[in-house]
Amino acid sequence: MTLNSTLAAVTERIVLRSEATRIAYLERMHAAKSKGPARAHLSCSGQAHAYAATGTDQQSLAEGSKGHLGIVTAYNDMLSAHQPFETYPALIRDTLRKSGGTAQVAGGVPAMCDGVTQGEAGMELSLFSRDTIAMATGVALSHNVFDAAVFLGVCDKIVPGLVIGAQAFGHIPAVFLPAGPMTSGLANDEKAQIRQKFAAGEISREDLLKAEMAAYHGPGTCTFYGTANTNQMLMEFMGLHLPGSSFVNPGTPLRKALTVEGAKRALTLSALGNNYTPVCDVLDEKAYANGIVGLMATGGSTNLLIHLIAMARAGGILLDWQDFADMSEAVPLLAKVYPNGLADVNHFHAAGGLGYMIGELLKAGLLHPDTRTVAGEGLEHYTQEPFLSDDGLTFRPGPGQSLNDAVLRPADAPFQKTGGLKRLTGNLGTSVIKVSAVANEHRVVEAPARVFHDQEEAKAAFKAGELTGDVIVVVRFQGPKANGMPELHSLTPFLGILQGRGQKVALVTDGRMSGASGKIPAAIHVVPEALDGGPIARIQDGDLLRLDAVNGTLEILTESVMDRAPATADLSAYQHGTGRELFSLFRRSVASADEGASVFGV
Length: 602
Prior knowledge:
The protein is an alpha/beta fold.
């Protein structure tokens, strides 16, 4: 199949834009490879320290005759998606001993749950936790004694942080081992309706808690298609998972078999063998272009419009929002998974999942087929799905057709002809919007602004009955420099109530929305942010705004707005408490959202 012309053009543009930084990065990785792991060169004291607690593995490590695997884990048992990782290190160590290798936990990285911190002060640490995770990964691998590494992480900032950290050690192979989604509980649309009823004061907090507990009820990833599950999709599209492994439930024999195989595969890819596949060769310009395609085809999380840029820069590759915008115009939306539909990721997986989708996109010329992956040369490997048989783990061709066209459709009969995300530009700045779950009649909103400096002010105005007509709610001073760019998902219930009353309503913010953002048109990640004096800082109550997700524009229609002095805000409340004082350096040095909102340079 001929490669789609837009995919080819965008990829070539990325290659040319990134030439100098990518060459410099690859030169650093080549130099690191030539030195090899340091364990054979450590002092006797250094080796003794490194191997002191390895028991029966101590002698083989001292001899340096076997492959040695580093495990970087984001395990904690407060994140349901990460609780299964508790048993992975022991399983991996036992597996590799039997196959002639060794493994150690290189280090742990922090992992916070955005579901817990929504609407709370802790959310202001969430985005910065990504770069903290990257640095912790660097510390974990800095002992430089490993031939390859596996990474245990699933959720929102964790996978991007681990990918950034892995690329700092891009001369060794990296395999990502997921935990899988929890089994289906209370339907996501029913959960959303209950949240709206609580916001409207129609049910008690006890009723709300009962519903939430029925939705989030066991180990595994939350089942809606938010940032965590978008991360898992990307790891297959970009070749860092084993094929078909993203959405296998925890605690099953197949999940265990995939973990075992992933660990063994990582060592087979090391420089000790004949199939050396360092992560710097897997995550090239084509892999990142494929990731953008996957994001658009699935209607994935808006958070990845920040994370993919930061991840790519760690490998010397420069993406920008125009790359995403152009690909969105070329890539059809093939999936409807909540909040872009009623199904959850378990239903998506049962309908054919990523294997079917990747096959469809390859046939349509919408993916680069010739990428390197941990499964082998070529993305065709990811049209397969795993099975357990008497012979152990096997991979077979996935279904040739969707098993539920209400959830998953072929490329020639998509849910919509364009992708699930769009870029908005205009005199209000540049932003992005998730349109896959926004009904056509809500994609253009022209209404007066109501301006707030935090989400609590906005919720208070709703409770006071002040938001009665058509309105574009502006929540500013929520950018990365102001307060770490928290998600503002707690605005969703009351905005949904306004929309349900027949009002035209939209959100404009320099903050983020959750990966679960859905039916409310929301222009998010606005740059320049308010703290930088962007146009969003000059808006006043009553100014007429227009959000047009059809034509991709975000405009202030009131004249002479830019003649005003930008508003200021007292941000002192964001500086202390709940650990916020520890991240002042991040707030002072962070890049803008369209550059990945990272504290790292290229």
